[in-house]
Amino acid sequence: MTVQTQMQQAIASAQSVEASLTQFSLETENQQAKQLYSQLAQQQRGIVTQLEGRYQQILQQEPQFNQN
């Protein structure tokens, strides 16, 4: 498995976690839980952004990965 594939999978997984947390925050009626899930989703968005940034760095540093 290439670094590119691993990064793509990590980003997809992180996005899935973010989506789940967002869904939990929308579905719960408990206000404390809603706030917690919302905050966690925002933190997860930051993680996704960082992973995407690192992925872009890899593509720039390793042109052979940028064949898509």
UniProtKB/TrEMBL annotation:
InterPro entries: DUF1657. It comes from the Bacteria. Pfam families: DUF1657. This is DUF1657 domain-containing protein. The lineage of its organism: Bacteria, Bacillati, Bacillota, Bacilli, Bacillales.
